[in-house]
User: Fold these one by one.
Assistant:
Number 1:
Amino acid sequence: MNIQKIRKDTPGTNHIKHFNNAGCSLAVQSQIDIITNYLQEEAIVGGYLMQAKHQNEINQFYQRAAQLINAKPDEIAITGNASEAFNHVLYGIPFEKGEVIITSEIEYSNNFVNYINLKNTKGIEIEMIRNLPNGDFDLEALKKAIHPKVKLIAITHVPTSSGVVAPVKAIGEIAKAHNILYLVDSCQSIGQLPFDVEEIGCDFASATGRKYLRGPRGLGFLYVRNSALSQLVPKSLDNVTAHWKLDEKVDLDIKTKMFEHWEKSYAMVLGFSEAIRYLLDLGIENTWNRIVELSSYAREQLNSIPEVTVHDPGTNKCGIVTFNKKDVDPLTIQKYLMEKKINTSATLPFSSMTDLHHRGLENGAVRASIHYFNTREEIDALVEAIKEA
Ligand SMILES: Cc1ncc(COP(=O)(O)O)c(C=O)c1O
C-alpha cells in the first residue's frame, strides 16, 4: 500500500495523530468532495431532482456494502447507525416469554440495555457466556448453554473496550448446528478486518459508517440474510416497502429494505459509498494486515514502559489497543495526549460495563485505536508522550 498517497488523501493526518478510529475515523478527501459537490448542486436544483439524477450512484451503495461483506445487495438496508440496525433485529424477532438470548460479556451498552429491556417487557432470559481466564470466548460454555428455549445468539465481534476478536465463525457453526438465529454486532469489525457473512454464517449483522469504515457520521447499515427475513416482524413500516391500499390494507415487500426509511441524507449516502469504494480498492486483506502489524508494534512498545500495562486480552487481537499507566487516570492521560495533538480516547464502564468490570478496570483504560493510515512514527510519538505523561 502506498501510505504516502493514503495520507495525502486523508487531510486530517496533517493536523493530528489520529488514534481514535474506534470512536470516529478520518474521512478521505474524495468522500468530502462528493458530499460537498452534491450539497452545492442540491442547493441549486432541489433535493428531489438531485436524488433522481443520482439514483444509480445511490444504488451503488448496496452493491459496495454487499461486496465488502460477501452478501447480496438486497440483503442490505441503510440505517442511521449500528445501534439502530442491531435493534431492528432485536425488536423484530417475535420473542415469547421464557425464550433466551445468549450473549457475550464484551457487549456494548446499547446492546445490553436492550436485552434487559426485552427481559423487562417480554420476559425473555439473558444468558451471558463468561470468557475464559485468558479473555477468549468460551466455545465449550456456549455449547453447554444451548437448549430448546434459546432463540438468538447475539455476539459482539470486536468490543469498544479492548482489542480482542471473538471467534464468530466457530460460534456461527454452533448456531447453525442448533438452528438458532445468529446476530453479530460488527460495528467495530466491518471495515477493520475481513468480514464474510457466508464464512461466519450469521443471519444478521450491524455496521456503522464513522468508525473503521471511515464514512460520514449518522449512517450505518443492517445485513439480513434473505433466508432469515421470515423470522423478523418490523416494528414500524415505511413506504419504501409498505404499500398503502384502500380498505385499511398494506402490501409489504418482505425484504431487508423494510427496515429502511425513504428520507435520509443522500449526500451522506454517496459519501459513505465512496468510503467503501476506497476501502475495496485498497483491499481489506491489505489494510487488515497493516492494522495487525501496527497494533502489535504499539503493544510491544507500550509494554516496554515499566509503569504501563497493556490490557488487551485473548488470542486474536485487532487494532484497538488498551492500556493504563500506573496511578494515572485514563481520562487525564487522554487529555494530556490531546494537548500534544495525539487523539486517543478513554474506554469507560458506561459503554462496556461487564467487560471492564470483569477485567478489574473499574476506571476504564486509555484506548488507542489504530488504522492503516497511521504510521510507526506516530506510534513512537504516542509512546514517547506516554513515557512523559
Ligand atoms: C461494539 C459496538 N457496538 C455498537 C456500537 C454502537 O454504534 P453506533 O453508535 O453507530 O450506534 C458501538 C459504538 O461505539 C460499539 O463500539
Number 2:
Amino acid sequence: MKAINPSQIQDTFDYHEQTKHHFHRFARSMGYLDWANQPNPFRFYKGAGSVRLPLLGRDLPVSYLELYERKNRVSRLFCLESLGAFLELSLGLSAWKSIGDTSWALRMNPSSGNLHPTEAHLILPPVLDFGSGVYHYAPYSHELERRAEVPTAIWNALNAHFGTSGFLVGLTSIFWRESWKYGERAFRYCNHDVGHALACLSFSANLLGWKVIYLNALSDEEIRTVFGFHAARWNPHEQEHPDLLCFVDVDPENEIPRHIPEEIVQSFTTLAFYGDPNRLSQTHVDWDIIVDVAESTEKPETEPIVYDCTDIPLRIPHPLPHLSATQIIRQRRSAVQLDAATSISKDQFVCILDKTLPRCFCAPFDVELGEPSVHLLIFVHRINGLKPGIYFFVRNERDFSEIKALCHSNFLWKPIECNFPLYLLTPGNCQYEAASVSCGQEIAGDGAFSLGMIARFKNNIEDAPDCYRRLFWETGLIGQVLYLEAEAHGIRGTGIGCFFDDPVHQILGFSDNAYQSLYHFTMGGPIEDSRLTTLLPYHHLNQEKAE
Ligand SMILES: Cc1cc2nc3c(=O)[nH]c(=O)nc-3n(C[C@H](O)[C@H](O)[C@H](O)COP(=O)(O)O)c2cc1C
C-alpha cells in the first residue's frame, strides 16, 4: 500500500479552492466556445473488430419499485440480448434533438453540457458467441469494439476468484471533452458524470436481476493495466483516465471480493491490444491544473472493504407512479426551464428524498462506493403541506452533530417527521437565494425544490485524496436517483454543476472546508422547448444501412 504524500492533500484542496465560482469571478476557462474544435462526444477504436449489440425491441416488464429493490428478483440469463439491454438502458442513446441544420444525440446518462467525457470498457467471459475479451462500448452504434482477446486461462482465473458468473465493467474519463467548455472546473464535472454513469449501470443491472459492485481495492494503475491503456496510442490530451472497475454479478446471491489478485491483473500485460482511439479535436488547450489534480487524486491499491448499510424499508409513494422502470429510464431528460408553478405533495417529496438513502438491497447505493458522506441542503419552494424554507436532509447520522455545530446557531433543526432525517432550518421564501447561488440560473428557484449536496470534505480528503473523486461520484449517484424520481412523479429534474461555492457555504454558516457543497439539483414542472424536433435514438443506424 502506498503512503499518502502531504502535497497530494494540499494540491487537492488547492484545486478545489481554485475552481470555485465566486459572485465576482468564475473559475478559469476560455470564456468562449471554439466550435471548430469541439471534441467528438463519440470514441471509437479504429481497427478493433466490432460486434453489433441487439436493441431492446420492447420494454422490460419491471415496475417503478423494481428500479430500486433487489428483493426476490429472478436474474436474466447472461447472453447477447441481455448484455445489449444492460448497455442500452444505462449508457445508450435515448434520443436525438434537432433544430435547423444542427442535431445532437442524448443518452440515458446525463452529462454536464452534454459533452459526455465518460467511456465504458468491459471484460467479458467466453460464454458469448464472440468470445472472451476486453471491449469498448460505442454508444453511437451500440457496438462492442473488441480491443483484446482474453485467453480462457485468464478468464478461468477471474472466474475462480469471483466464484460466480458475471463480467467486469469499468468507466474512464476524457477530461478534454469537458475542459473544452468548462476549463479548470472540468475535472469536477467529469467526476459528477462518472457518478451518474455508475448509477445508470446499477439501475440497468437491477432491472435484469444483476448487481454491480465497485471493486474498491483496485488502484487506478491496475485498471489501466486490465484495459490495456499501456498499449493505447493516445492522441495528445485525449487519453482516457481510469475511474473505476466493477464486477457485475449475474447471479447475485454471492459475496464478491472487492479486489483482483495482482497476478491476474499482471496477466493482462501479455495480451495484444488492437485499435487506435479516434481523434476528438484538431487542437487542444492545456489545463495543467487538471493534470495535476488527476495525479494528486490517483487511487492507490487499498485494503478491500465491505460496507454494511441499513436495511430500512423503502417509502412507497401513494399512489404509485404508473410508469414502468424502463419507461422512466428512457424518458429521463434535463429540464431547461421550469414553470414556477407546479407543486408536489409532501408525501411525494419525502418519498423522493427517501430514495437517496443508502440501503443494502437497493440500487444504486448498493454498488458500495464507501461510507456515505453527502447530505442535502434543500430549498423548498412549492411542496404542498410543507412551509417554504431551507431544510437539511442528513444521509449519514454520523455527521449530524458535527454539521449542526458548524451551522448558524439560530437554525431551528425542527424534525419534519419521526424517524426521517429531514429538518427545517429556517422558514421563508428562498427562491431568489436558491437561484442566485446556482449561478443565477432561474431553474433553481422556479422548481418545487432545489438543493445543494453537502459533502464531508476535509477529513475524507486528508484520509485519502482519491476520495475527492469518490465524493463527486456519490453526488452523481444521488443526482441520478433525483432525475429518475422526477420523471416518476410527473415532473423533471436538472443537475446543476454551476453554482457559487462559498455563498452556498455562507447560507449554512460554514467558515472552513470541513463540509463543502459539490453539486446542485432542481426539480419542477418543465416548460418544453417547442422549437426542437425529437428523433428516435438509433434512427441513424437504419439510415446508414439504407445508404
Ligand atoms: C454534472 C452535471 C452538471 C450539469 N449542470 C447544469 C447546469 O449548471 N445548468 C443546466 O441548465 N444544466 C446542467 N446540466 C444538465 C446537462 O446540460 C444535460 O444533462 C445535458 O445537456 C444532456 O441532456 P439530458 O440530461 O437531457 O440527457 C448538468 C448535468 C450534469 C450531469
